[in-house]
Design brief:
Strand order of the largest sheet: 2-3-4-5
Helix content: 40-55%
Oligomer: single chain
Strand content: 5-15%
Distance between the termini: 6 Å
Largest sheet: 4 strands, parallel
Radius of gyration: 17 Å
Structural class: alpha/beta
Shape: globular
């Protein structure tokens, strides 16, 4: 389970009651988590961090679930390995709320401005959803989101946007790994059309859209999200062994 920019492995913790007993979950803390931004923001090949995280799973992963920024990096890793005729050795992947465009012409100046402007709102949404049991005053929530955005800073944001800009260059048509592409109909950060479009381009892609979900399905609908992952895990394995690893 690979978290997105500015989050950490705890974003998956609410899923714990929903996992089947035969599923073993690995959720590493990645360098782009909030506390580690200072040491990562000048990294120029974050894809290698994804490979390192996968290599650290004992016996290898049966399924890789990646959210938001990490889904873009995982897609790039899959593309690199496919282009080198050395496909990634995982039976399946789930790309959750990915950022993706297939044409460089789709990137224009307004995309930059709107993505920058939306970033604090996305951070606020994450904080709000993780503190629903003890709601935070809206003004304080805004302050917290701005502080997190400032902590990530322009270099951290640019690492995300550079990965996003590279997506038209990914040879996704060569990726043979089964992929479930999850999109939220209410996602204002990574529009659901990104997920639909990517699923249609991947040779073994499947689309799953939750119309009433935003950018954080693991927080908004944990039971349904885990159910979708379970179902896909079963589809990509002829027979699930005593323990399936994510």
């Amino acid at each position: 389970m690979l978290h997105g920019l500015g989050n950490n492995e705890a974003i998956w913790s609410g899923l714990a009651p929903h996992w089947r007993s035969d599923v073993e979950v690995h959720a590493p803390r990645l360098p782009w988590q909030a506390d580690g931004i200072a040491g990562w923001r000048h990294e120029t090949d974050s894809v290698s961090c994804i490979q390192e995280a996968l290599d650290a799973v004992p016996g290898g992963a049966d399924l890789v679930v990646a959210h938001s920024f990490s889904s873009v990096l995982l897609l790039e890793l899959l593309s690199r390995r496919a282009a080198d005729a050395d496909p990634l050795d995982v039976p399946g992947v789930v790309l959750v709320n990915p950022f993706y465009k297939s044409s460089a012409d789709d990137f224009h100046w307004d995309v930059i401005a709107s993505t920058v402007d939306d970033f604090p709102r996305t951070m606020a949404e994450s904080i709000r959803l993780r503190t629903r049991e003890r709601p935070i005053d809206p003004e304080l929530l805004g302050d917290m989101a701005r502080r997190l955005t400032e902590w990530i800073g322009p270099y951290g944001w640019l690492r995300f946007f550079e990965a996003y800009l590279r997506t038209p260059l990914f040879p996704v048509d060569r990726i043979q790994t089964p992929a479930l592409v999850f999109g939220g109909g209410l996602d204002r950060s990574a529009p659901v059309d990104h997920a639909r479009h990517l699923a249609g381009l991947l040779p073994r892609g499947e689309e799953l859209v939750e119309p009433e979900c935003g950018h954080f399905p693991m927080l908004e609908m944990p039971g349904r999200f885990v159910g979708a992952v379970h179902a896909f895990l079963d589809r990509v394995h002829d027979r699930v062994g005593p323990t399936a690893g994510l």
